[in-house]
Amino acid sequence: MSQFRIAIVGAGPAGYFAAQALQNSETEDRTFAIDMIERLPTPWGLVRSGVAPDHPKIKTVSKVFEKIATAPNFRLFANVELGSDISMSDLTSRYDAVIVATGSSLGRKLGIPGEELRGSLSAADFVPWYNGHPDFANLEVPLDCDTAVVIGAGNVAMDVARMLALDPHELDTTDTADHAIAALKNSSIRRVILCARRGAEHAAFTSPELRELPKLEHTNVLMSKTEVESAILRAGDEPEKDVKNNLGAMELITQMEPTSHERTLEFEFLLAPLEIHGTDRVEEIVLGVNRVEDGKIVATGQTRTIKCGLVISAIGYSAESIDGIPFSSGKVNNNEGRVPDSNVYVVGWAKRGPSGVIGTNKSDAAEVIKLLVEDLPAAPKENGDVSDLVNQHVVITQSDWEKINAAEVAAGEPLGKPRVKAVFREDLLKHAGYLS
Ligand code: NAP
Q: How far is CA 300 from CA 55, 104, 234, 275, 402, in A?
């Protein structure tokens, strides 16, 4: 019987599904000892710091993660950072295989003048801010303006726009970070405009997200009937299923009766960001008006200016590079998950780019693990693990994490919330019993 040691870097969905695929590949002759390394004191990645707090059902996948984590031969080394606490070569020399599951955490830039002004943010910062990620707790989010513009037509743009446009009291029973609920309750924003550069038929939203918009209790959702009707015509008689579902959901939105709510969420299509203007902060955004010609986007040469104090771009992500790993185009260089000339593999967004829903990572990881198993040497390395490298460091183990989790859930119970997130590292370590 051989036991191979595998290190997984990153405790998000891709990392857990890779661990699960390894556990499912065990045989009578071959088992895996899995060490999962995570830089934050908390696991679950985007399930904790990405998924919108008003989407609690999506977060129930964490039950699957906990089952994986409590199986034999699985260890969590959280609060351990690759690059500062340990190096890639520490891992590749000790483990039979290393799986990179570090995701894509950097927001893509618009690359337009004025993007650096105060009040211009990336969703890659704003989303972890409202979700209580320790690194973003002190982000400055100026909400003292009437209008916010969100750039992008994907589900992240939709989450961001919805979070800004809903009545923050609707967040009282969610696990939104306390600092974000307080800031949103204080917010002057009453008009949120989501701008897509292409037509409604090209939007990257998924239809369940569109279908929930009419259920917002305190927000008027506005979408142009003319644009949706034009998009339906442009999409033709046999649109792809996703396009058909999206346009169907959009049609329902256009049929909604306007209400007297002071909060509005407006969808604008065929507007591409050109410039952000302002002296000390964002004051307006200039967008180029596009039209669709033979299925392609063409600039009309006209522009539209929207006065606003906040611009949030949600136009995709790229992966943060790791020393010792080849990167290009915002991803780890890989061949179906194999990193060339190494015992390193990559899964999830770091492998394929920022696409797909959480479940996509399950099949993606299973395919990569199949290759990893094929490549395994005849016998394990037996060259140690990371324990000796991190013994001077506070490592959050699975049982420490269970203490943090239990403390957060217990704090939420009397308030009717799934949990109250500890945001600062010190508070997380306190929950785990390391600091008094
Ligand atoms: P996405 O789905 O790829 O959408 C990115 C959007 O940004 C697209 O509409 C794109 O428009 C637009 N864009 C890109 N560059 C632009 C530019 N320079 N100017 C203006 N617009 C630009 O990415 P995402 O929203 O970040 O989501 C990432 C993945 O996570 C997706 O697979 C998404 O479905 C998933 N996700 C799922 C959920 C959920 O299930 N509830 C929630 C959040 C995220 P073009 O199409 O014109 O390029």
A: 38, 34, 18, 16, 56
Residue among 356, 348, 355 at smallest CA distance from 332: 348
Q: Is the CB of 20 under 6 A from ligand 1?
A: no
Centroid of ligand 1 to alpha carbon of 416 (angstroms): 32
pLDDT tens-digit series, residues 252-288 = 999 998 888 999 999 999 999 999 999 999 999 999 9
Do the Cβ atoms of 344 and 95 come closer than 8 Å?
no
- Which tokens belong to 15? 């990392």
Tell the residue number behind the tokens 């194999």, with chain if given: 338
Pocket test for ligand 1, best of 109, 194, 315 (most atoms within 8 A of CB): 315
* Ligand 1 binding pocket mutation candidate from 48, 125, 155, 289 (most atoms within 8 A of CB): 155
CA distance 167 to 185: 8
CATH topology of domain 109-314: FAD/NAD(P)-binding domain (3.50.50)
Q: What CATH class is the domain 2-105+318-396?
A: alpha beta
Encoded tokens for 406: 């239990």
Sign of the Cα torsion 423, 429, 433, 434 reads negative
For every residue of 77-137, which 3-state class applies, written as one string?
EECCCECCCECHHHHHHHCCEEEECCCCCEECCCCCCCCCCECEEEHHHHHHHHCCCHHHC
Domain boundaries, the chain: 2-105+318-396, 109-314
Counting from 1 in the atom list of ligand 1, the atom nearest the Cα of 356 is 32
> Is the pLDDT assigned to residue 159 strictly greater than 80?
yes
Band (pLDDT 50/70/90 cuts) for residue 295 is confident
66 CB under 6 A from ligand 1?
no
